[in-house]
Amino acid sequence: MTERLTLKTSFGCSPQTSLLRQAVRAALLSTALGVSAVPPLAIAAQDGVTASRQSYNIAAGPLSEVLNQFARQAGITLASTPEQTAGRQSPGLKGEYSADQALDQLLNGSGLIAVGQESSGYVLQVGAADNSLALPTTDVKGFALGNALGSMAGYNATHSQVATKTSTALRETSQSVSVVTREQMDDQGAQTVSQTMRYTPGVLTNPYGATHRYDYVAMRGFNDGSVDNIYLDGLKSMGDSGTYSSMQVDPYFLERVDILKGPSSVLYGRSSPGGLVALTSKKPLYEAYRQVQATVGTQGQRGVGFDFSGPVDDEKRIAYRLIGLADTSDTQFDHNKEKRFTLAPTVSIDFTEDTSLTLQAYLQHEPDGGYHGGVPADGALHQRNGRRISEHFFEGEPGVDVYERDQQSFGYQFEHRFNDVFTARQNFRYLDSDVTNNQVYAFGWTSPTSNELNRYYTGASEKLHSFIVDNMLQAEFFTGATKHTVLMGADYQRRKTVVDWASGSLAPINAFAPAYGNSAITYFSPTSYVRRLEQTGVYLQDLIEMDKWRFSLGLRQDWVETSDENRIAESGRPAGTEINDKRTKLTGRVGALYLFDNGLAPYISYSESFNPNSYADSAGNPLPPTDGKQWELGLKYQPPGTDDLYTASLFRIDQENLATKLPQENFYRAVGAVRSQGLELEAHLQLTEQFKVLGSYTFTDIEYSKSMVSTLSTPTNIIENKGNSPTQAPRHMASVWADYKFDSGALDGLRLGGGVRYVGASWVDAENTMKVPSYTLFDASVGYDLGKVGLKGVDVRLNANNLTNETYVASCASLNFCYMGEERNVAATVSYQF
C-alpha cells in the first residue's frame, strides 16, 4: 500500500508533459470503476481484534459520540447514519470486553444492533423491535456520503463533505464550514440560493442588491463579480463567469447548502480564495412522499410547485423523484418581471448493496430574468439637486430590455464498494445553456448639475456547452491504531461558449422623472468570440485519525488551458485570431485538530487556491491567474450530548492578480494584491426540542497590499491605494435568528420565527473617498400546521423579509454603480403533503 500511495504522490507533483496530460484525460473519460481488479488492502486490525478482550472506560453520553470513541479505541470501523443514532443515549462502557460484547453493551436499549462484516468492520442496523427506524440498505455505508448529504431535521447538521469530499463531522473538520438545512430555508422563506445564506458568517449575499438573476456571493471580503464559487452535487456549476451565461438553481430543488470558507483548490481545482458554496439537490426517497405547494406574495409573486418521490419496485431498489416549479413575479423595479419554469427528474438504482447509480436532470426556462443594474452614488447615497433616486427606478427601455435563459443539465452519480477498504465514485454532469441579453444601463450624469443619466446598450447572444467528470477512489484502513481515509481523484472539465456581443448608446434619461420611448440605439462595433476552457486535475488526500488528533493532508496538480478566438476582425486582430493561455499549478492543504473530551476542538490549517483568468487586457493578452493562500486558526465547541455547534475562526488570506473591468469596457485589469484577515463567530443551538437559535458575527479587515490601476475616468493612471479597502466588503456583519414551535395547549402547531441582520459600512470606490452606510434588516416568519385542526398534511407559512421596509443601498462597486437593497417582501405559502 505504501508503494501505491508514493506513486500517486509523485505523479501529482511531476512536471506536466503533453503525454501525461493526454493519458490522464483519457482515463477520466472512461469509467472510474475499472479498478475493480485492485486487491483489497491489508489492514492492521485483523479478525483477532473482534475476539480479543480489551479494557475500556467510556462515559455514558450520546450514542453517536460513544460509538465513535469506542471504534477508535477498539480499532474497528463502524458504519452508521445520523438518523439511527439521533436522540439516543448509551450507558457507556467500563471493564474488559471483546468487540462484540462491547457493542452489545453500548447498544443496550437502543433498538439497534451491530452486524459484523469482513475483517474488523461493523454495520449498525435496526433490531427487530425497532423497525420504525428502518432505512434503505444503501443508506448504511461507512464509505458513502449519506451522512453528509442526506436530509435532516432542524438546523443542526453534524457532518459535511464539502471540505474533504468524504463524510466528515463538522467538529472534526480543520476548516470553517457552515451548513444551511432544508428546514432553515423553509422557515426563513429563501427564494434564491444567495438568500439561503443570509444568516451565515463571512458571506455577503446581496453585493448587487435586489437582483435575482445570478447567485452572487462575496465571501471573506472577496467578490469578483462572478458566480464561479457555486457547486452542485460536488461538481462546479460550469457557467462562464466572463459572459452572461451562468447557471442558477432554484432553492426549492435543494436539500442543503454547505459553505466552505477559504481557498479550496486541492479538491476542486480553480476556485475563489474566499470559499465555495456547495448545493445538494433533493434525491429520491425509498418511502412514498408527495407534496404540492402554492405561493402568493408582494410584487405580484405567484408560484406553484410539486415534489413527488418514492420506490418504483417492491424490493425498493429503484426510487424516483420528480420536482417541478412555475414561478412568476414583478420586481421592485419598474417595467421588470421574473418568470421561471423548472422540472427536475431523478432516478436512483441500487443494483446491489454495494453498487448504486443516481441519474439526474435539471431543465429550466426563464423568459424574464428581472433587473440587473446600478445607479450613481450621487443620487443614491445622498441627495442630488434635493432628490434621491427611487428604489423602483429603471434606467433601461421597456421595449429593449430582455434577459432570457434556457439551461439543461444531465448527470449521474455512480458509486461502488469493492470491499471494506475500497470504494469508487464517479460524478458527471453536462450543461447546455442559451442566453439572450439586451440591456440599457446608466453610466454617470450628463453634467455636474444635470438630472439626466448617460445611457449605454449592451446586447448578447450566447450558447454554452460544458461538461465535468470527477473520479474518486477512497480507501479506509488502519496502520496500527491510526486510521487513514485516503482519497485519490482525477477530474476533467471542458467548456465552450460562443458569444456575439453588441454595444451602443441611447438618449439620456431623467433619473427623477423618467420618460421612456427613446429607444433608438447608436451602435458601436460588434464583437464575436469563441471562448474555451479545459482543466485536468489529479489530487491525493489523507485524513488521519490518531487517538484524539485529526490531521488532513492534501496535494493537487492542475493543467489548465484557456483560449479566446475572435470571429470578427478587430483593431490589430484579424478574424480567427486565437489567444491561448496554458497554466500548471500545484496546490496544497494541511490541517490539524485536537478533540478534547469536554467538546472543545482547536484547529489550525493552511490552504491554497488558484483561478486562471479567462480575461484579457486592453492588448488582448490573458491576465495572470489569481493565487490565494490562507492560514486559519479556530476553535469548535460541541457540548457533550448535543448537536449544538459553536465555531470561532481567525483567518488571513493573501491574493494576487484579481481581475476587474468597467461595465462600458470590453477588457480587464489586474488590481494587484489583496490581503484579507478577520474573525468569524457562529452558533447553532437547539435550546429545547421546540426552540432553535442561529447567531453569527463577522469582522473582515481587507485591504490592497499592492496598488491597483485606477477605475476613474483616466484608467491609465496609477493610484497609490495601498492600504485602502476594496468595495463591497463591509468590516462588520452580524445576525441572529430564532424559531419556536408550540407543541401543546391552545397554540399547538403554531411556529414563530424572527431574525435581525446587520451589515456594516463599506466603501463606494477603491480609492476610499465615500462610504456606503450600514443597515439593519428584520425578518419574520409565522407558520401553522393545519393538521391540528383536522386538515391532515396541510401547512401554511407567512414570511416577511425586510419587515420594516428599510430603504438602503446594499453596496457600491464604484462611484457610478450603486445597488439598491431589496424592499419588504411578504409571501404566503400553503403546502399539502399526502
Could you walk me through the main structural features you see in this protein, from its secondary elements to its overall organization?
The structure is a single chain. This protein has 834 residues and is mostly beta strands. The protein has a domain at 276-515 and 522-565 and 593-833: Maltoporin, Chain A (Beta Barrel), CATH 2.40.170. 9% of the residues lie in helices and 49% in strands. The strands form 11 sheets. It has a 22-stranded antiparallel β-barrel. Strand 29 and strand 30 (600-611) form a beta hairpin. The longest helix has 12 residues, at 2-13. The chain is globular, with a radius of gyration of 27 Å. 49% of the residues are buried. The model is unreliable at 1-17, 26-50, 128-147 and 710-717 (pLDDT under 50).
Features:
single chain; 834 residues; mainly beta; Maltoporin, Chain A; 22-stranded antiparallel β-barrel; 47 strands; globular; disordered N terminus
CATH architecture of the domain at 276-515 and 522-565 and 593-833: Beta Barrel
- Radius of gyration, in Å, reads 27 Å
Strand content: over 45%
Give the number of DSSP strands.
47
Corresponding CATH superfamily of the domain at 276-515 and 522-565 and 593-833: TonB-dependent receptor, beta-barrel domain
- Give the averaged pLDDT, no decimals: 86
At the fold tier of CATH, the topology name of the domain at 276-515 and 522-565 and 593-833 is Maltoporin, Chain A
Oligomeric state, counting identical vs distinct chains: single chain
Largest sheet: 22 strands, antiparallel, barrel
- What top-tier CATH class of the domain at 276-515 and 522-565 and 593-833 fits best? Mainly Beta
Count the DSSP helices: 11
Share of helix among residues?
Answer: under 10%
Class derived from helix and strand content = mainly beta
The CA-CA distance between the termini, in Å, is 52 Å
Low-confidence stretches: 1-17, 26-50, 128-147, 710-717
